[in-house]
């Protein structure tokens, strides 16, 4: 056994650190060693359980209902809000889209009777047909700001819901309610808002967006995967935060991740609905086969109870007072980071942080891809974001509680990285290569062509990742989004093969 564990630890040596606050994407660190240990013990205790059938492991039902009740209270859902623990924010978003689609198809679980504030009784079926039902033979659609998380496009791909994308305000990066309203039609089954958006860290004007959805009998989902466990505790601590939760009439569902700012082990998110009626189309059952009647509340059937138990244990351990303290620490750290980063020569903060996310842009003397490489060399991981339409590339930094005490170190590293990147200058992509990339149709490329392009991008050897990613990202940055997607899918296909 010791040999196996030793091999695992050796393999981990090439991974980014999950604790210590230096990895500013993908992981969230409370800095509380005892909470981490409680989570690990709960994972081990429940590792063999299966949430497929709540009558077999009734403790899982208790744990899930406890967590959902906590989240519903936090997000002002009143006594009627219900929810489901999922594997992550993407699954929560997938289910929100699937539920809206299926509700519109059947005419059941429409929001017309359920979009009032939680102090008003709701839950009885609507007596009128949904205005959001797509016309006969048409495909359902959802209206979303251009800053909505990519998981909504994954849902569109999986469930045949056409995404109608609306540009955001070019200065604030917030959704424009009037533009979203203009994009709605008889096929619209869902309108989306973010609290906050991942790329820029701003909260959309949820009251106005939810109101336009309610007026049309359309569901409104708020993606609060990042902010849902932060904004309420900041509000309790006296910070003025935008209205975004079930206290806003018209909001019908909210996604909030536990494995982000509840600091639980990976694999736990919650999808909340304002009422049981609105949630009902989310469930799947099938009895017309010779086996057991399949009954699922999520996209999973077999569902490990370990992340659920770990989330419950960590949430119980930290508690409201602990989360209020952690939210304020992370928020203050993000604000301080933004203030100090704005003073670094060559950097610009794109928007004041509404929660714990900071987005930075570099001037023409350096590119963010080289800055990210230089930060990695200094022991910090920051996430490059490629250009989007007329917006240049940027850097994404997620601040967790463990990072907040290291802001001075982080800023010093940023200053050094920017200076080195300015000396090196931006990565240059040959104009003829950029022109060729812009004219390629990925649908016409075969495996040999992808092999050549991947080699050109520095990704030809899937067994050995490049030490510096700036040249790769610079080339991807000049490629149109469809070609970026095709290249990265080809790379993933080659990367994930047995050796």
Automatic annotation (TrEMBL):
Region spans: Disordered: 104-140
Pfam family membership, one: Pyridoxal_deC
Cofactor: pyridoxal 5'-phosphate
Molecular function via GO: aromatic-L-amino-acid decarboxylase activity; pyridoxal phosphate binding
Signal sequence, renumbered to the chain: none
UniProt KW keywords: Lyase, Pyridoxal phosphate
Database matches in PANTHER family: PTHR42735, SPHINGOSINE-1-PHOSPHATE LYASE 1 (PTHR42735:SF6)
Name recorded for this polypeptide: Glutamate/tyrosine decarboxylase-like PLP-dependent enzyme
């Amino acid at each position: 056994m010791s040999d196996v564990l030793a091999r695992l630890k050796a393999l981990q040596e090439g991974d980014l650190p999950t604790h210590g606050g230096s990895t500013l994407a993908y992981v969230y660190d409370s800095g509380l060693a005892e909470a981490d240990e409680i989570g690990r013990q709960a994972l081990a205790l429940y590792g063999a359980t299966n949430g497929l059938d709540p009558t077999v492991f009734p403790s899982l039902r208790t744990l899930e209902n406890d967590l959902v009740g906590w989240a519903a209270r936090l997000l002002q859902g009143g006594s009627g809000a219900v929810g489901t623990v999922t594997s992550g924010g993407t699954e929560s978003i997938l289910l929100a889209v699937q539920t809206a689609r299926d509700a519109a198809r059947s005419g059941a679980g429409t929001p017309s009777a359920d979009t009032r504030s939680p102090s008003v009784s709701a839950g009885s079926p609507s007596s009128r047909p949904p205005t959001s039902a797509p016309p006969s033979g048409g495909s359902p659609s959802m209206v979303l700001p251009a800053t909505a998380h990519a998981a909504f496009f994954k849902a569109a791909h999986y469930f045949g819901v056409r995404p109608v994308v609306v540009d955001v305000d070019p200065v604030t990066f917030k959704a424009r309610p009037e533009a979203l309203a203009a994009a709605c039609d008889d096929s619209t089954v869902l309108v989306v808002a973010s609290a906050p958006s991942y790329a820029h860290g701003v909260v959309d004007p949820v009251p106005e967006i939810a109101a336009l959805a309610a007026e049309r009998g359309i569901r409104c989902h708020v993606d609060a995967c990042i902010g849902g466990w932060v904004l309420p505790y900041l509000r309790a601590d006296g910070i003025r935060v935008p209205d975004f939760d079930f206290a806003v009439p018209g909001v019908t569902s909210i996604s909030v991740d536990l494995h982000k700012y509840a600091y639980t082990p990976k694999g736990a998110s919650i999808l909340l609905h304002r009422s049981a009626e609105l949630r009902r189309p989310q469930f799947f059952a099938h009895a017309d086969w010779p086996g057991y009647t399949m009954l699922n509340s999520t996209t999973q059937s077999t569902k490990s109870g370990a992340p659920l138990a770990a989330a419950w244990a960590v949430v119980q351990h930290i508690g409201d007072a602990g989360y209020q303290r952690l939210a304020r620490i992370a928020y203050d750290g993000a604000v301080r980071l933004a203030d100090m980063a704005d003073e670094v020569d060559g950097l610009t903060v794109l928007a004041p942080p509404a929660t714990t996310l900071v987005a930075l842009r570099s001037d023409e003397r350096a590119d963010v891809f080289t800055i990210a490489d230089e930060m990695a060399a200094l022991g910090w991981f920051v996430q490059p974001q490629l250009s989007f339409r007329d917006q240049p590339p940027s850097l994404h930094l997620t601040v967790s509680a463990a990072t907040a005490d290291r802001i001075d170190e982080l800023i010093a590293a940023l200053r050094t990285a920017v200076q080195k990147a300015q000396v090196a200058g931006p990565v240059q992509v040959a104009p003829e290569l950029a022109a060729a990339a812009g004219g390629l149709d990925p649908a016409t490329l075969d495996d040999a062509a992808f092999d050549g392009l991947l080699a050109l991008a520095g990704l030809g050897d899937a067994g050995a990742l490049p030490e510096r990613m700036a040249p790769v990202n610079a080339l991807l940055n000049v490629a149109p989004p469809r070609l970026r997607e095709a290249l990265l899918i080809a790379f993933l296909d080659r990367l994930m093969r047995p050796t």
